[in-house]
Amino acid sequence: MGLPKQIMISSGIALLMATLFLQTGRTRSIPLQATVTPTPDRLAPPTLPATPLQADYGAKEFWSRCLPCHGERGQGLTDEFRQTYPPEDQNCWMSGCHGARPYPDGWTIPTIVPPVIGPTSLIKFQNAQVLHDYICAAMPYQWPGTLADETCWQLTAYLTRQNGLWDGAGELNQTNAAQLAFLDPSATPASLPASTPTPTAAPTLVPAAAGESNPSVRIVIILAAAVLVLIFSLFFIRRGLSG
């Protein structure tokens, strides 16, 4: 057998082993599966955490009392938000609903319901105490002055936290609400004098899938194995020719 033919055979063996090594590495790897994220229900009630804060209770009260007019994000009665209702209920100002001639238990609502969460939404209120007093006196729109004082504080805590004016730790009440001034909505959320901010949980690191390796490292190993096989093949061929 001539030397060129032996070299071709050795090269073929090296390539075959490299291919087998590559296939073996592929079978050990675990393919990643796409995660399907369900579409959240915008009108679903909020879930209370294991240890609810005052603002968390306020989120529940906002959902049950304020959401129909102010939106699930406090954006106001926008055209986009009204699309979440059934078609027959999307025109809130038609006669028989909340228009000029509402049904017996209905009421007429303004054509513009302002946002209560967002930049400058609470800027007209000097502090949390003023906001609380307004909620108790004027809300809900159809039955003003009917909310319990505790509910007013819970709603005040929720709106203040959601607008980034307060960190939500502790409890708002008559002894500290006036100290929580609504001055600069872009400032860092304030803390109450005796409150302890809730620690932020460290992010969870997700380990790589079992059997998964770096493609660059695998290629280097394959090439090194092929070169070693080729070298040993040539070595034994030369020994055979010289023997």
Average pLDDT, rounded to a whole number, is: 79
Structural class: mainly alpha
Strand content: under 5%
Helix-strand pattern, N to C? HHHHHHH
Radius of gyration (Å): 34 Å
Q: Quick one: CATH class of the domain at 48-76 and 113-192?
A: Mainly Alpha
What fold name stands as the CATH topology of the domain at 48-76 and 113-192? Cytochrome Bc1 Complex, Chain D, domain 2
* Number of alpha- plus pi-helical segments: 7
The percent of residues in helical segments reads: 40-55%
Low-confidence stretches: none
- What's the N-to-C terminus distance? 14 Å
Number of strands: 0
Task: Give a quick account of the main beta sheet: strands, pairing sense, barrel closure.
Answer: none
Shape designation = elongated
Question: Which homologous superfamily in CATH is the superfamily of the domain at 48-76 and 113-192?
Answer: Cytochrome c-like domain
Supply the CATH architecture of the domain at 48-76 and 113-192: Orthogonal Bundle
